[in-house]
Protein: WW domain-containing protein
Organism: Noctiluca scintillans
Amino acid sequence: LKGLPPPDNVVPSLLFFVKAMAGDWCMWDNMERIIKQENYKGGNSVFQNLKKSILKAQPSELDDICSRAPLVWKFLVNFVAVKDMWRQHTILIFHQLGRSSAWMEAWEKETELHEKIRLLPSDLQAALAAQHDLYKSVVLPGALGSIVRIEDSPQNVERAIQQEIITDSIKDASALLRSLSLTESPTSGENVGDIAMDVYSIMHSASWAKLAEKAGFSEECEGTVDQFIDCVDTSASGVSGTWRTIKVVPSGHVLYSKVGSDEATWERPTELGGPHQFALGDNVEVFSHRLQEWAPGEVCEKRGEVLSVVAHTSRGRARKEIHLPNQDIRRMDEV
């Protein structure tokens, strides 16, 4: 993930997650239109997209798109002039762009924007000046006497950037999982439950915990995860010994996550009774990925670790072959 330490165990289905985390630089046409029409009040979505992309970018990536610097600087300065509620996020962007020497060279040439900077509120000028000497050189001398809020100090701005990266990534993961859950074939060979389990495991991994601690909200990290990844129903989870059971929404699958580690599995651990056992005639439920539903059924044949189940779906009676172990079958008395 851009700007983040690598997760401890990146699994194949997390490729979808990584793609969702990548910055999206496809906002230039909309930005040019807003500037041409001077419709900065309608620029919220462009600003948010720009913020997310810039905060996650490395200096080398920013250098690669430096040809867009005049466009971006003009948009940012004019946007914050009419949208004061985005003040704090604007400071984060200015701080991040200050890490790129190419962007700072471009900033020095924007003399018309320097004049507009001097029209911003004095406290905002002072906050921007604290982020880089080249910003400081263009603000009004009187503005430098304004008190810089604690949260606007470079150290705390850097911490806020880390927080933004984490929360944006979690939101993106949640949106990704929700969108995949609406498709008939959400991934190539992976189901939504697999991705949810992988994301949940990554979010509770040691590297994410370290990043959260660096960002200054380690105690809130798990709450942040639970708040945004609403595809994982932690309210319906339970802890037994060293294992946590988690219901994955909307599929209803149950996964088992080992407390204090990155280990997670669909198969019930030995400590909780071991893998589920099925016998001929058992009443079960099987999950249909095509219909995205659990259907009641009965085990009508068993050949070693292969079950044949007659299920009654919303589309009618169907025969399904299940290879054990498999998270797509569960006993009716365990639902």
In short: The two ends are 37 Å apart (CA to CA).
